Amino acid sequence: MFDAAYEHIRLFKVMPYKTYLKNIELLVNDGKMIRISKGIYAIPDMFGNHESVISYSTDYHGGMVVGDKMYKYLELSDFESKQTIIYTKK
Q1: Are 65 and 58 in contact (CB under 8 A)?
Q2: Burial, 4: exposed, middle or buried (Cβ in 10 Å; 0-12, 13-18, 19+)?
Q3: How far is CA 83 from the centre of its chain?
Q4: How far apart are CA 53 and CA 29, in angstroms?
Q5: What residue ranges do the domains of the chain occupy?
Q6: % of the chain with per-residue pLDDT over 90
Q7: Which of 11, 49, 61, 63 has its Cβ near the most Cβ atoms within 10 Å?
Q8: Distance CA 43, CA 56 (A)
Q9: DSSP state string for 25-85
Q10: What is the dihedral of CA 52, 55, 59, 64, to 10 degrees?
């Protein structure tokens, strides 16, 4: 999983940004990548699985799940929320 804007700045500075985004779009259309949300993409393994946004944000970017999901995880509440809120350093 990666942030397109961050990776462009870090690794693909030489390529114009619109060309870079067009290449990503072609990979998504070919099924080689999955668009998670605006600017966030995942590369699935050979079985079509990819890392979840929650584990990616919390494991690699110092993110923290907050709100109702956190209370449920810590067994402070029985409420099961459909929304997950993640705070990260970025």
Answers
A1: yes
A2: middle
A3: 15
A4: 21
A5: 1-47, 52-90
A6: 23
A7: 63
A8: 12
A9: HHHHHTTSSEEEETTEEE---TTS----HHHHHHHHS--EEETHHHHHHTTS-----S--E
A10: 130
